[in-house]
Design a protein that fits this description.
76% helix, 10 helices, 198 residues, mainly alpha
Length: 198
């Protein structure tokens, strides 16, 4: 199991802080948000907040862990669900990638929050690793179901999963509209789906 999936936030106080802080960061941005703002959003005192988190950067990283963990979990569930391969893959991409980012990007301070991604390199790496693991497993299952030998085509499940995520990253940089992203993602998935047919 990937490390990002192991991170479970079970303390209700921490969850309340993270949910409240996320709303505040989206409304005011990271730089303008204070620990007082977060404490108010979590309906607790500032000293009580400091017992749980050392500063707002610590809170931001914890939010990122929570969001990325939920993203990997949503992708895993979508890929394991019912339906055709392409439909399951599109559900996974939408839930773990497109919808997850839509709320952030649409907020007044979304650009600032997205720019902070570079400070979360280790978490983003774990998140991507979790997605690749589940996508590669779904590709492997579909190839086996269809009797397709990917190695004979000079491909591997890892390569296809990485190619899909690289394509999604590039698409995100080029297309800001979520509906346009879904259309571009569907084209990527179609290429992989065709590769998995005998």
């Amino acid at each position: 199991m990937n490390q990002i999936e192991d991170i479970a936030t079970t303390d209700p106080k921490r969850v309340r802080v993270l949910d409240g802080a996320m709303k505040v960061f989206l409304a005011y941005g990271f730089s303008r948000t204070t620990m007082d703002d977060i404490a108010r959003a979590a309906d607790m005192s500032r000293p009580a907040l400091y017992l749980l988190f050392k500063n707002k950067t610590d809170i931001f990283r914890a939010i990122a862990m929570m969001v990325l963990s939920r993203s990997v979990g949503a992708a895993k569930m979508a890929l394991a669900g019912d339906g055709a391969f392409a439909a399951r893959m599109m559900r996974a991409i939408d839930e773990a990638f497109i919808s997850m980012m839509s709320a952030v990007v649409a907020s007044p301070h979304g650009a600032e929050l997205v720019d902070m991604k570079s400070s979360l390199g280790d978490l983003v790496g774990c998140w991507r690793g979790g997605l690749v693991e589940h996508i590669a497993a779904a590709i492997q299952d579909e190839a086996a179901r269809n009797g397709v030998d990917l190695a004979a085509k000079g491909l591997s499940t890892q390569l296809l999963a990485d190619m899909l995520l690289d394509g999604l990253e590039g698409m995100k940089a080029r297309i800001s509209d979520p509906e346009g992203q879904r259309q571009a993602a569907a084209a990527l998935v179609k290429v992989i789906d065709l590769t998995l047919r005998a």
